[in-house]
Amino acid sequence: MPYAAGHRTEIKGKIVQSARRLFNRHGFDNVSIAQIMAGAGLTHGGFYSYFKSKSELYTEVLGCFFTDPNWKSCWEGVEVDLASADVGPQVVRAYLSRQHFEDVENSCPMVALPTDVSRSSPHAKRAFETVFEAMVSVLERSSVENGRPRRARAQATAALCVGGMVVARAILNRVRADELRQACMSVALTLGGWHDESKLQNGKSKRSHRLRAEKV
Amino acid sequence: MPYAAGHRTEIKGKIVQSARRLFNRHGFDNVSIAQIMAGAGLTHGGFYSYFKSKSELYTEVLGCFFTDPNWKSCWEGVEVDLASADVGPQVVRAYLSRQHFEDVENSCPMVALPTDVSRSSPHAKRAFETVFEAMVSVLERSSVENGRPRRARAQATAALCVGGMVVARAILNRVRADELRQACMSVALTLGGWHDESKLQNGKSKRSHRLRAEKV
DNA sequence: TGTACATCAGTGAACGCGCGTTCACTGATGTAC
DNA sequence: TGTACATCAGTGAACGCGCGTTCACTGATGTAC
Questions:
Q1: What is the mean pLDDT of residues A142-155?
Q2: What CATH homologous superfamily does A7-61 map to?
Q3: Closest CA to B115 of A43, A33, A110
């Protein structure tokens, strides 16, 4: 038996990562199999020994983010510790960060590909749902009790994070995009109970200043 | 001069409407010019006497919704009166309604096409921005003063409406999608100051019941 | 250690297809008389 | 009212191109001796 045991697994991983980068940048339909395989250092012909079809790749790519234990590497430099009690505000800040806004290639697929998924197979939608539920679940566990249902708040917070990023990337004016991210971040932090209301009213607290200075 | 004066304007409108329906359903890239022209009752060859290129159509299609005085027709059966003082909650309810969720063809392009736009030309992004700003502006004017900046709240509310719909359409489970819309609607109404907080805590008010009965 | 070999990962030519775009032409139209 | 006509909206064949997918083949690999 030629080739080491883990060879195919390793190559398949390279193909998925190449596809993830290209899909994030150009969408499902504007990426050819030849491009994906070239990104993995291969030629197009070998693709079908790894996947039944192009659309089968969609599901695989969606699953490799957020639910993947290595997802943190996608946001290098942004600290998110899933074990921390502070994970809620950390996720919100990382998700709506300038870094995530700019790094389209390593973006969360919920930001880069949601409408592509809504036009895709039930398999892709299920994979998307899993990623979204994982995010809601993290936010829910971390949110502060305030009399309103935690789950509903967590769902709205997640939708706000995704929506804020999707819209910020679709508008032309960069200043407005930044303003939108900040507005969504502020409201999202309040929803989870991680933000002092007084800070939102005047924006003069230390934390607000720090956030602005860091250009988060 | 053969053909009446308004003939070309009328036909151009038909092409744009056909494109809007097809783009909403399949995205920019999965719709051919032949399909668009067929939807307007024409053949593909005539397209280039109306538009310089396919991508020029994107801008035109984005502009025809929301900023268009006739946009209301897109949500038949959902009452939204832009002159009303109550326009904020009306827009939120209509936007996150089941009807809007289901009627992909006549959907707001911000829900159906945001990632397509983020990969498109600056022209398309500017058109998207105009639509989004129009929505923010309506929400801002209608929102209730509560000590926090109205504009930031309006921006977050709009992002929440768009994000909630985008995610709801991308997940498989219909019940979860409904749950998500409701959660986003509830939070969005609170953000604008149009919702009694007490109603959110137990969901037993008349209004909550009416909303549920109407399956909004 | 060196060599011959079976395996199978990867190659690239070929397929049918539909796309965006162009253009010479057709024929429906309102006008002039 | 009826007819001949100039205009130009719309047609459809044709173009080059890149796509997803297939498949006969090549050659790199680890193993057996």
A1: 94
A2: Homeodomain-like (1.10.10.60)
A3: A110
